[in-house]
Amino acid sequence: MKLPGFLGRWLRFNAVGAIGIVVQTGALALFKGALHMDYLAATALAVETAVLHNFVWHERWTWKDRTASHRGALGRLVRFNLSNGLISIAVNLVFMRVLVGRFHFPYMAANFIGIAAGSLANYLASDRLVFGKEAGS
């Protein structure tokens, strides 16, 4: 059953995001837990890892109908990093700094809160700025 436009895309976006949460959480565990990096540096690297993962899935699945040719994929990747990447890193770093640095929350809990906080902004940026019909034209 094919879902109508916005609803289907929103659900695909969130499915990719759910997998991205696993990617980001695993990367954060590796960078902070196993490699003992500073929690802010580990967060930034983990977010970027998830952003790159999510771009590939959004390109191939969520907005596949808007990326029929592979021309422009590099431009979309740049726009995705400049929008979703910056939003995600900024929101996550602010939440980590406040929740972990100031209130001593566990870093994984703060990570999930930061992800949730940036979700809607990331969808709108992706839909309008990265994969929009006019984006990059």
Distance from first to last alpha carbon: 32 Å
Structural class: mainly alpha
**Domain unit count:** 1
Order of helices and strands: HHHH
Q: Total strand count, please?
A: 0
Mind describing the biggest β-sheet? none
Oligomeric state of the chains in view = single chain
Mean pLDDT, rounded to whole units?
92
Low-confidence stretches: none
> How many helix segments?
4
Plain-language structure description:
It is a single chain. This protein has helices at 5-34, 39-62, 73-102, 107-130. The chain has 137 residues and is an all-alpha fold. Helix 1 (5-34) packs antiparallel against helix 2 (39-62). It is elongated.
Short description:
The protein is mostly helical. The protein has helices spanning 5-34, 39-62, 73-102, 107-130. The protein has one domain (5-64, 71-130).
Comma- or semicolon-separated keywords:
single chain, 137 residues, mainly alpha, 4 helices, 0% strand
Give the helices and strands, then pairings:
Elements: H1 5-34, H2 39-62, H3 73-102, H4 107-130
Helix pairs in contact: 1-2, 1-4, 2-3, 3-4
